């Protein structure tokens, strides 16, 4: 027995299937979070299937198995490790034993992502039908999506549902990317502090299209580097299966959940971010079935195991929401403190101006005229007071309280038509 097989696998969840135990051991051996590694494996499993394979029309029309995965952790806390390990846990082969190779893409413009699935017209280059799209920093997604004229967010909303994507560029002569003609799995690495780049689009439904899994470290690990072998998964060809079989019990549960949510009035806000939760769970169950060698057939065990992952997904979303609330409260407290400081500074300035006005008016009442130069010089060594004097004497002149010649400051200041010995409030 080698070090790999000696890794103890928890009986619950991970010990229920050989492929899950393999994922767990692989993740521990590579110092990665097992759930995050499994999420990456599921993304590649679905990307290995043809776009013809769809979920049945439980609600509306048949649904695409295109899939989004959000790996969540702070910088340097295991997102890249999970992605790297997850790529290697399984190798996917067709029924003939040939390796299924899935292209990997980087995010860019919306039309740029979609165009990579179009026929290039080059006889030597086959059209990309299946791909995994990676975004290493969620903030990049926010920046690209925020550019003027960017179609990235709108395109991802469609592509993660397998919908038709057109090209709006007036110079483009490309045909649209038709619905269910491509398979896309997308991974995005999310730092909690930057999660708003994705979460800000919840009104449009973008984060609802992703399974959120944590990349936090486990308590286990190995003190040696192992040369690990992938587990082989056979994936059927597109013609063998086009609609995923779903147990009647699952169909009933999905329909009841939909009916409950559909009762929400238009005037009421949706209760949470889980509007696509059951569709997401169906995709996760389908991915688990693929990893178990049963592409195109979900059973009740797949559904139950998928529920464990979507519960974890909801927990991660709750943590992100809690962090966002803390950040909002912290920002609110900072803004309140800044406002109070500004108000305090304004009050101090007003008090200084009121005091200066009192001094000027008292001096003018006592003497009848006032040498502005002499009065200002009496404030020698008090730069802020001189600035206050300059501001106040100009305001008094503008209000007709005093007569003062700004162009000839040597002339005496006299009482104006609206002179009153009482200082006015600012």
By oligomeric state, this entry counts as single chain
How many E-type strands? 12
- Relative helix content: 40-55%
- How would you classify the helix and strand content by structural class? alpha/beta
Contiguous runs where pLDDT drops below 50 for at least 5 residues: none
Query: Helix segment count?
Result: 13
What is the N-to-C succession of helices and strands? Answer: HHHEEEHEEHEHHEHEEHHHEHHEE
Task: Quote the beta fraction.
Answer: 5-15%
Short summary of the structure?
The chain has 426 residues and is α/β, with parallel strands linked by helices. It is built from 13 helices and 12 strands.
Structure in words:
- The chain has 426 residues and is an alpha/beta fold.
- Helix content is 44%, strand content 11%.
- The protein has helices at residues 3-6, 18-29, 34-47, 79-88, 110-115, 138-146, 152-159, 196-199, 248-262, 277-291, 300-367, 372-377, 383-398; strands at 54-55, 63-64, 67-72, 90-93, 104-106, 130-135, 183-190, 210-214, 231-234, 369-370, 402-403, 413-415.
- The longest helix has 68 residues, at 300-367.
Features:
single chain, 426 residues, alpha/beta, five-stranded parallel sheet, 11% strand
Summarize the SSE layout with pairings:
Blueprint: H1 3-6, H2 18-29, H3 34-47, E1 54-55, E2 63-64, E3 67-72, H4 79-88, E4 90-93, E5 104-106, H5 110-115, E6 130-135, H6 138-146, H7 152-159, E7 183-190, H8 196-199, E8 210-214, E9 231-234, H9 248-262, H10 277-291, H11 300-367, E10 369-370, H12 372-377, H13 383-398, E11 402-403, E12 413-415
Parallel strand pairs: 3-7, 3-8, 4-9, 5-6, 6-7
Antiparallel strand pairs: 1-2, 10-12, 11-12
Helix pairs in contact: 2-3, 3-4, 3-10, 10-11, 11-13
């Amino acid at each position: 027995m080698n070090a790999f097989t000696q890794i103890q696998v928890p009986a619950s969840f991970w010990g229920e299937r050989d492929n899950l135990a393999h994922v767990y051991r692989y993740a521990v051996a590579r110092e990665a979070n097992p759930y995050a590694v499994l999420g990456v494996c599921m993304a590649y499993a679905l990307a290995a299937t043809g776009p013809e394979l769809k979920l049945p029309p439980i609600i509306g029309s048949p649904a695409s198995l295109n899939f989004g995965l959000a790996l969540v952790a702070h910088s340097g806390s295991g997102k890249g490790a999970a992605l790297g390990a997850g790529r290697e846990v399984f190798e996917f082969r067709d029924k003939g034993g040939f390796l299924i190779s899935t292209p990997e893409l980087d995010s860019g413009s919306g039309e740029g992502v979609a165009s990579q699935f179009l026929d290039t017209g080059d006889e030597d280059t086959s059209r990309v039908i299946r791909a995994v799209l990676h975004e290493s920093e969620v903030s990049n997604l926010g920046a690209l999506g925020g550019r003027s004229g960017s179609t990235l967010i709108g395109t991802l909303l469609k592509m993660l549902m397998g919908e038709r994507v057109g090209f709006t560029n007036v110079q483009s002569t490309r045909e649209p990317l038709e619905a269910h003609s491509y398979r896309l799995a997308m991974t995005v690495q999310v730092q909690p502090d930057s999660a708003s780049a994705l979460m800000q689009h919840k009104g449009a439904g973008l984060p609802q299209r992703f399974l959120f899994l944590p990349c936090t470290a486990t308590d286990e690990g190995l003190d040696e580097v192992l040369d690990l072998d992938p587990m082989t998964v056979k994936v059927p060809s597109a013609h063998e299966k086009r609609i995923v079989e779903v147990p009647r019990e699952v169909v009933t549960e999905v329909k009841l959940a939909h009916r409950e949510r559909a009762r929400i009035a238009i005037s009421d806000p949706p209760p949470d971010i889980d509007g696509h939760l059951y569709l997401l769970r169906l995709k996760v169950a389908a991915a688990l079935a693929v990893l178990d060698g049963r592409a195109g057939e979900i059973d009740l065990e797949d559904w139950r195991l998928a529920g464990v992952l979507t519960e974890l997904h909801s927990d991660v979303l709750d943590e992100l929401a809690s962090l966002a609330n803390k950040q909002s409260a912290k920002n609110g407290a900072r803004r309140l403190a800044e406002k109070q400081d500004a108000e305090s500074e304004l009050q101090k300035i007003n008090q200084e101006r009121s005091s200066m006005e009192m001094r000027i008016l008292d001096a003018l009442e006592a003497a009848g005229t006032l040498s502005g130069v002499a009065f200002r010089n009496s404030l020698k060594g008090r730069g802020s007071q001189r600035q206050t004097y300059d501001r106040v004497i100009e305001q008094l002149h503008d209000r007709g309280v005093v007569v003062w010649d700004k162009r000839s400051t040597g002339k005496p200041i006299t009482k104006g038509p609206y002179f009153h010995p009482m200082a006015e409030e600012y």
